[in-house]
Write a structure and sequence with these properties.
Rossmann fold, 8 helices, about 35% strand, alpha+beta, binds magnesium ion, 20 strands, binds adenosine-5'-triphosphate
């Protein structure tokens, strides 16, 4: 067995457009997916996720570069000769056939002996918790259950790799969240490599061992959910995953552990953790997530300057929204800039004084280690 279940090496896919031009749907993508991994490809609409998946499946061929499955270059190997199977968003079940027949169909096409088909279909239905539903028609099942038939239909073929293109897209939010946890548990149980395409960042964080964040045909970052959220390597990734505050700046000093950045919108220096190779003079974005900002009441004289090195700003509360676990606060820091801060409500109290309200004056502390200095990306 090769080290990797799936590899893309410098893959390019160019499509001709009806207007007579060309579009690089996938633009020099290189990535390696390990055996047994839950690997997600995440990015906005049109970034090349489905095209990447279709090339792994063999429905499209790369214009340049190569796809390897378990170490073997795929070239123009057709889909049915690859040890992968695909679950699409529109799962297209045969409505006139029973659940059992839907799952058995692929095996019958391959002329697998009847006894073995029965045994494998029963196993697959058990995996997706549809035992005892074999005789029903798809219409007699809920949306989530129908999705599970599609999954069973793929699993019954015992692929080494399962490719899933937004498989939960058709489900409502609650069911979607349930299925996310179920799918993840199922993947760990059967040990099959999952390549999972989604544009839903929360879904990718919840389910994946690693995530590739894509934009405009390129992979910007590959990492674990923690790496992607805590150490995004550019502004795009920080913006796409979760919420964050940005301040525009220019790098002033790079010779210490922390970078010093001059803000562009008002004269102020902020220190933070640099990501990537940043040069003095380069324009950057400072990114700090709402839950990582610290607030204190501003009890000092308004006019006393804070030292730059302390990463302190002054502000005025514009609005607050109590959402139970935390309170979301929007703070005006002047110069037409506002920051969003989430304060965890770790003390249970009815005292209104314990919560910030509009017009409160606050000191905003941007802890160095939580303040990221990012290139545009
Ligand atoms: N067969 C095709 N012919 C021409 N252009 C295509 C074709 N398939 C995809 N594209 C273009 O390639 C780009 C990437 O498309 P792709 O379907 O891979 O995006 P995606 O990331 O899956 O988006 P979504 O989240 O909307 O499904 C888009 O600009 C799309 O219009
Ligand atoms: Mg797609």
């Amino acid at each position: 067995m090769d080290e990797f279940a799936v590899e893309m090496r410098d893959v390019v896919k160019i499509f001709p457009t009806p207007e007579g031009g060309e579009v690089a749907a996938v633009n020099h993508v290189t990535l390696q997916i390990k055996h047994g991994e839950f690997f997600s490809m995440l990015g906005p609409s049109g970034c090349g996720k489905t095209t990447s998946l279709r090339m792994m499946a063999g429905f499209e061929w790369p214009t340049e570069g190569e796809i390897y499955i378990d170490g073997t270059a795929m070239g123009r190997t057709p889909p049915y000769l690859r040890t992968v199977n695909t679950v699409f968003q529109s799962y297209a079940l045969f409505q006139h056939m029973s659940v059992f027949q839907n799952v058995a169909f692929g095996l019958e096409m391959e002329h697998v002996p009847k006894k073995e088909i029965e045994h494998r279909v029963r196993d697959a239905l058990e995996m997706v918790k549809l035992s005892g539903m074999g005789r029903r028609k798809p219409k007699q099942l809920s949306g989530g259950q129908q999705q599970r038939i599609a999954l069973a239909r793929a699993l019954v073929k015992r692929p080494a790799v399962l490719l899933l293109d937004e498989p939960l897209g058709a489900l409502d939010l609650k069911l979607r969240k349930e299925m996310q946890l179920e799918l993840k548990a199922l993947q760990k149980e059967v040990g099959i490599t999952f390549v999972y395409v989604t544009h839903d960042q929360e879904e990718a964080l919840t389910m994946s061992d690693r995530i590739a964040v894509m934009s405009q045909g390129k992979v910007l970052q590959i990492g674990t959910p923690v790496e992607i959220y805590e150490r995004p390597n550019c502004r795009f990734v920080a913006d796409f995953i979760g919420e964050t505050n940005f301040l525009k700046g220019r790098v002033k000093k790079t010779d210490e552990d922390l970078l010093t950045v001059e803000l562009l919108d008002f004269p102020r220096e902020i220190k933070g953790v640099g990501q990537g190779n940043l040069a003095v003079g380069q324009e950057v974005s400072i990114s700090i997530r709402p839950e990582k900002v610290r607030l204190e009441d501003d009890i000092n004289d308004d006019t006393a300057p804070y030292k730059d090195s302390d990463n302190l700003l002054r502000g005025r509360v514009l609005t607050t929204a109590y959402v139970g676990s935390d309170t979301r606060i929007i703070i005006d820091i002047g110069h037409n800039i506002s920051l969003i801060v989430w304060e965890q409500n770790h003390i249970s109290t009815l005292d209104p004084q314990a919560y910030y309200t509009a017009e409160d004056k606050v000191v905003i502390h941007l802890p160095f280690e939580n303040t990221l200095v990012l290139p545009e990306g």
